[in-house]
Structures are given as C-alpha cells and as structure tokens.
Amino acid sequence: MSKEAEAIRIDKELDLSNAGRGVWLVKVPKYIANKWEKAPGNIEVGKLKISKQVGQKAQVSLTLSDAVINIDPAEEIPRDHRLDVSVVTKQTLGVFSHAVTTTRDDPVPECEKQYMEGRIVQKLECRPYADNCYMKMKLESIRKASQPARQVKSLEKIVHNYKPVSDHKHNIEDRERKKAEGKKSRDDKNAVLDMLFNAFEKHQYYNIKDLVRITRQPISYLKEILKEVCDYNMKNPHKNMWELKKEYRHYKEDDKKDDDATKDTMSDSDSD
Where is the TFIIF beta subunit HTH domain positioned along the sequence (predicted)? Predict the structure, then answer.
C-alpha cells in the first residue's frame, strides 16, 4: 500500500451492542417528509399512539404536532394518519449509523466508528384518512398538475424585445483574416515532396514554421509527409528542426568528398 493510501485510510469499528434491538421501518407520504425536512431539530413533530385489543392486531396511529402543521400555513396537510403494519419475515434488514472523530489541530478523520442501531422487525406504511382536508389537498395537487407549463397572456402594452446578436464582431474579424490569408488546402503528395526536396537543397535544417510557409500546407498533413522522408532532431545544436533522412541527402559537401575519393583512386591506378 502506498503512503498516500495509508494517509487517507480510516480505521472503522462496528459496534454491535444494539444488534438484537428491534426497530420499525416507516414509510411516510411525501408531504409529511417535506414538512419534517423543514422542521428544526428542537421541536416535537408528532405523537405515535399504539392501541391493542385481545385477539386483534395492534392499531397504530400518528398525529402531527401543531408546530409541523404551521411550518407552512398556506400548505394544509392532514393531521391524523394510520399506520399499516406488516411483519418482516423473508428479509434481514438493519439500521446503521456512524460517527467520525477528529482533532482540533488535524481536521482529517482519525477514526470512523459504525453502530448497528437495530434489526428491522416491522414495516409500517403511513396513510391519511379520507377526510375533507385530505380530499382538498388532493384536488389542489390535481389542479396544479393539470396546469400547462406555458400559458398564453394578452399584452396591453408594447413589449420591446432585444434580439440576440447573430454574429459577434470578433468572429467576423477572424473570418475576414482567414479569408485574407487564404485557406491552406492539401496539394498532391508528390508536389509537396518536390517543394520539400527543393528547400532542403538550399538548407540542411528547417523548423516547422518555415516549412509551412514554404509549402503552404496544413501542418498536420505536412508532418505526415515529413515523417516519411525526414528526421526530427531532439538534441542540440539543431534541436526541434527537421532534416532529410540519410537515404535522401545529396549535399554538395558529400559530392565533393565523392569527387576527392575518385581522384585519389585514379591517381593510385596511374602510379601503378
């Protein structure tokens, strides 16, 4: 394991002291969940009432508190709900929580401890009673859902619309500059090779900018051809410059050496 991985690794411990405790999994309507999310953490959100008679299932009900109902008075929601209970038999579900400990000098977590809060033994689904408040809330939700996203409105005054600029000044100037310079188009490969060989007859080394200026070819197309017939120097004194490969070089100095070698051979043969 690398040092960086060791630095960010957090030791985790699992506390199983509450593993045998039974807990409930409750599903509530969205409008209750929204109210509870807006509620501060120091208020009572509701009361749970459990009543059981001999030979019958337990009756569970939930009554929301006034503090939750009045969070948004314009949005009226039912106060009383029943909870339908079902026993969990074919699944093993648990509730976990975790706590991270840090130091004042070092905010990086030192240890993360996990707790098993209990095992889910019952599922409960919260359902409202079909009273006037619930029916009024459903009608309001249906009315909002039926409203179209866009509406037609009659205008009594003239509305000045400012159309967006179809083309910006810098784009126009850039196109004019490219048109003035002339768009580089690909020439025939043999024609480009002729231009390159003619250029290398004058000088042994060229940078890419000079070759683009001489051949007037797109730089990507030019580099493809250069890689076939040229070598790219990576070291000084001709770093970042192109020169012909050895098999394509025919410089005057080489011709002179060949001529000198021919003269020496002829003089040796004459002496014999």
Answer: 186-249
